[in-house]
Design brief:
single chain, 119 residues, mainly beta, four-stranded antiparallel sheet, 51% strand
Length: 119
C-alpha cells in the first residue's frame, strides 16, 4: 500500500486549503484512513479519521467545525478540507491507512505535505 499526500502550501490565517491523499497498491474501500500532523518540536497528533465506507468520522477537538475529512472510493483518494486556518495548524500533514485486522494501529503512511499558516 502506498499513500501520497498533496495540496499543502502557505496560506494566511482565516484561509482554506484542501489536502488530497492518493492511495494505491490495495483495495481502497477496505481501509480506514486518517490524517495526522506534526508541528516542529511536537509529537505527531491525530487530526481526523474516516471509516472504510465513509459513514463514520472523528476529529480532534481543535479542528471540529473547521476541518472535514472525506473519501472518494471511486478515485482511491482521501481528502481533508481545512477552513478558517490558524497559525496553530501549521504542521506537516500525513495520511495513513489501516486494515480491519490492524486495530488502532496505522501501518501504512504516506509522505507528508507542509501546511504553513501565517498570522
Amino acid at each position: 500500500v502506498q499513500l501520497q499526500a498533496s495540496g499543502g502550501g502557505l496560506v494566511q490565517a482565516g484561509g482554506s486549503l484542501r489536502l488530497s491523499c492518493a492511495f494505491s497498491g490495495g483495495s481502497f474501500p477496505s481501509y480506514a484512513l486518517g490524517w495526522f500532523r506534526q508541528a516542529p518540536g511536537k509529537k505527531r497528533e491525530f487530526v481526523a479519521t474516516i471509516s472504510w465506507g465513509g459513514g463514520s468520522t472523528t476529529y480532534r477537538d481543535s479542528v471540529k467545525g473547521r476541518f472535514t475529512i472525506s473519501r472518494d472510493n471511486g478515485k482511491n483518494t482521501l481528502y481533508l478540507q481545512m477552513n478558517n486556518l490558524g497559525p496553530e495548524d501549521t504542521a506537516v500533514y500525513s495520511c495513513a491507512a489501516k486494515g480491519d485486522l490492524d486495530g488502532s494501529y496505522y501501518p501504512y503512511w504516506g509522505r507528508g505535505t507542509q501546511v504553513t499558516v501565517s498570522s
